């Protein structure tokens, strides 16, 4: 049994990960910017070094830290870039400084966004081999964090594994305008609010319960310095996902506007997740047809259904 801290543990992926790790018998604490009634939660803003330090003073040292705490999303990063850079870059630097002092093993959540405008199969070594144009500040902060982690490993021998999620979705992902396309489509469809679908764009989808199982396996096979894509084998047209949502909600596509392409976004993202399959037992057991249905049902319970205007 390991003692583990999950930063951002009250968030969508973080909360699923906390439950998965605890189900395996680990002693799991989490911190987040919000309060929680959980007895092993501590409120903490990673932008403030003193607050992170206090987590360790309160709970003691940890064997592993899963660092998920971050500001998420391209447009969120454009509109609230101060929060984005302070949380994702400075906040991660704080974690690295503590890691250099405390010597815990870290699992850092980067992003598929670090592949920027690359249009080929996305292997983990691609960003270091060719020039990539990063398309937004969110991507930049994640790449900066990866570079800081690698520099710390060289200078202080810290041990970190980096993972790059692609499109994780599922129950528990609350809607707001800066979230991904799955919760946006579902919320808008439930409330009869118009939304846009860009044709020709393809993405993989990873159901959150499948995803956290693979991520939790890192504790049992920790390879310092390794980088893992965790993405699906199949790509899906964004329109196909929208059609699934409309089908499960029970609406036609009269609320959907179709456009040819979204600017400054890679049209097709194809990950190579060979290493995650080999080392982390990554596999997809829930297809979008089932996962989207489960997610829609969760949204119905949480948000209800309205007719709109």
Low-confidence stretches: none
Order of helices and strands: EHEEHEHHEEHHEEHEEEHEEHEEHH
Q: Report the span from N to C terminus.
A: 53 Å
On the 0-100 scale, what is the average pLDDT? Answer: 94
Structural class: alpha/beta
Q: Helix content range of the residues, please?
A: 40-55%
SS field, number of helical segments: 11
Strand order of the largest sheet: 3-2-1-4-5-7-12
Biggest sheet features: 7 strands, parallel
Structural description of this entry:
42% of the residues lie in helices and 17% in strands. The chain has helices at 12-23, 49-59, 74-79, 81-102, 126-129, 137-156, 181-190, 208-216, 238-249, 274-280, 288-303; strands at residues 3-7, 27-32, 41-43, 64-67, 105-109, 121-122, 160-165, 168-169, 195-198, 202-203, 206-207, 227-230, 236-237, 256-259, 270-271. Helix 1 (12-23) crosses helix 8, helix 7 (181-190) packs parallel to helix 9 (238-249) and helix 7 packs across helix 11 (288-303).
Summarize the structure.
Helix 4 packs parallel to helix 6.
Sum up the structure in keywords:
309 residues, alpha/beta, 7-stranded parallel sheet, 15 strands, globular
């Amino acid at each position: 049994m390991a003692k583990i801290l999950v930063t951002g543990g009250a968030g969508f992926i973080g909360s699923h990960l906390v439950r998965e790790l605890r189900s395996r018998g680990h002693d799991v604490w989490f911190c987040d910017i919000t309060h929680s009634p959980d007895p092993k939660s501590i409120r903490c803003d990673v932008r403030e070094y003193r607050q992170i330090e206090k987590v360790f003073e309160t709970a003691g040292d940890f064997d592993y830290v899963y660092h998920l705490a971050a500001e998420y999303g391209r447009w969120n990063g454009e509109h609230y870039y101060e929060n984005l850079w302070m949380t994702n870059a400075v906040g991660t630097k704080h974690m690295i400084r503590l890691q250099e002092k405390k010597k815990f093993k870290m699992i850092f959540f980067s992003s598929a966004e670090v592949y920027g405008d690359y249009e080929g199969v996305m292997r983990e070594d691609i960003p270091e081999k060719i020039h990539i144009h990063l398309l937004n500040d969110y991507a930049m902060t994640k790449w900066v964090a990866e570079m800081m982690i690698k520099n710390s490993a060289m200078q202080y021998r810290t041990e970190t594994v980096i993972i790059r999620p692609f499109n994780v979705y599922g129950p528990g992902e609350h809607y707001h305008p800066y979230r991904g396309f799955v919760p946006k489509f579902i919320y808008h469809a439930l409330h009869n609010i118009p939304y846009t679908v860009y044709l020709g764009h393809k993405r993989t989808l990873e159901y959150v319960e499948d995803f956290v199982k693979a991520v939790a396996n890192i504790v049992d096979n920790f390879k310092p310095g390794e980088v893992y894509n965790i993405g699906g084998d199949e790509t899906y047209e964004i329109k196909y996902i929208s059609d699934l949502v409309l089908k499960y909600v029970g609406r036609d596509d009269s609320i959907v506007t179709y456009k040819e392409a979204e600017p400054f976004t890679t049209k097709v993202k194809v990950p190579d997740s060979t290493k995650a399959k080999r080392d982390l037992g990554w596999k997809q057991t829930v297809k979008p047809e089932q996962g989207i249905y489960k997610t829609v049902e969760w949204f119905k319970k949480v948000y209800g259904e309205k007719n709109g205007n």
